[in-house]
Amino acid sequence: CSYTDYWIEFEKRFKRISLLLPYRPFFKAYYLKGFQDLIKDKVQHVEIRYIFDELYDFQHGKYPMKTTITDLQDILKEVHQSDPQFTLKLIYSSFKFLDNESIGKQLETAFEMKKEFPDMISGFDLVADEAAGHHISFFEKSWAKMSGLHKKYGVELPLFLHAGESNSILNKNILDVALLNNKRIGHGLNLIYFPKTMEQIRKQDRLVEVSPLSNQILGYVSDLRNHPARVLLSNGVQCSINSDDPSVYGYTGLSYDFWVTQIYWELNVKALKKLVFNSINYSSMNDGEKKKAIT
Asked: For residues 262 and 267, what is the distance between their CA atoms, to the nearest angstrom?
């Protein structure tokens, strides 16, 4: 089974739930349960790469896009009654296979939402299979618009781009991303093939978000003892441990990902602690929120 076959099945799963998730009663129940499961797993801050879609129900039809955020804020209020430490941010996400015109429009929407909900929207990303979608440099026109949008809306919208979710040295996304104002890199698996860029990312103090179980399930890493993140860590590149798409893969929370890193990467408590603190220090929380989270 080639990794392309994994992606075909992976994307089919998203398609199967694509009409269920925006159904507003289901949406509310799903996220409430999701947050409660994460809290049970001792997760205190979550950043979701979120593909915005209009919510709907059968009484009212479609709701405006921002209903998603106001509903999530209501769910958070409910969660905070028992778990006040839990916090949430959304990374506005779109797709790598769209054209520049579409991504330009999405960026505009993301900046509008960031202005209206500065505490909820944290950044911008493009998702989908890197082998099938456009390269990051293809969207040069869109990235060039960012400083204008920053001036127009008066808010910062950092990039948290997926790059290097690939085993191929021909995938150069990681090189493009190092030249952008990109604070965190999603996956970064093939960064180890570009030692100069790896050193550059270390010096720029950027974070690589590593998702060990996802990498294994999608066929990028067959043996977790040989995971590229071990090379990144031993070269002083900052990493965090993430679960990527646990509900699609059939598990909950983050403990499993931490467990495999401890077992297969032979990490000591000090290294595990560093990974935990990286999750907070490189998160989209503001300084006050980070201080509270660390306490």
From this structure: 5
Q: Which residues contact 120 (CB under 8 A, 6 or more apart)?
A: 69, 72, 73, 88, 89, 90, 113
Contact (CB, 8 A) for 177 and 155: no
Question: CA triplet 121, 123, 126: central angle to 5 degrees?
Answer: 120
What confidence tier does 4 reach under pLDDT thresholds 50, 70, 90? low
Contact of 240 with 275, CB cutoff 8 Å: yes
Averaged pLDDT score across all residues of the chain: 94
pLDDT tens for residues 37-59? 999 999 999 999 999 999 999 99
Neighbours of 53 (CB within 10 A): 14
> Contact 241/273 with Cβ under 8 angstroms?
no
Nearest to 212 by CA among 223, 200, 199: 223
136 Rama class: left (phi>0) / alpha (psi -120 to 50) / beta: alpha
Give me the catalytic one of 165, 227, 266, 289.
Answer: 165
- Length of the chain, in residues: 295
The residue annotated as part of the active site, out of 134, 187, 209, 227, is 187
Residue 92 three-state SS: strand
For the cut 90, the answer to whether the pLDDT of residue 286 exceeds it is: yes
140 is catalytic: no
What is the value of pTM for the model shown?
A: 0.94
CA pair distance 252, 246, nearest whole angstrom: 6
CA dist., res. 145 & res. 149, Å (int): 6
Active site residue 165: yes
Task: Please choose, from the candidates 191, 192, 160, the residue with its C-alpha nearest in 3D space to the C-alpha of residue 282.
Answer: 160
